Amino acid sequence: QVQLEESGGGLVQAGGSLRLSCTASGSIFSINSRGWYRRAPGKQRELVATITKGGSTNYADSVKGRFTLSRDNAKNTVYLQMNSLKPEDTAVYYCYASTISGDTWYPNWGQGTQVTVSS
Q: What is the pLDDT of residues 45-59, one digit of tens each?
């Protein structure tokens, strides 16, 4: 199992920036992809950005050019730098990691961190 600890959420004005961090512990060796999802009020959880073990990144169209996902393997940490924030970015952001056991992939989630963007 993998445990994910998030930090960095908060309240910011539109146009501002925040950086989210997510540190993994436990069975680090079993991690494949990592990233962030979010759930806005009244909406389903959606992908924000992911990075594979090989370093390939994928971003939601709504955040391309504004958000950057990076990682520090030595610290088992991924970062989501969020710039030019908009009120529609308001959501609970969840850190994500996929792990493998045998031939089965499992999703692992952090507890979530609130990001609120005021207009």
A: 999 999 999 999 999
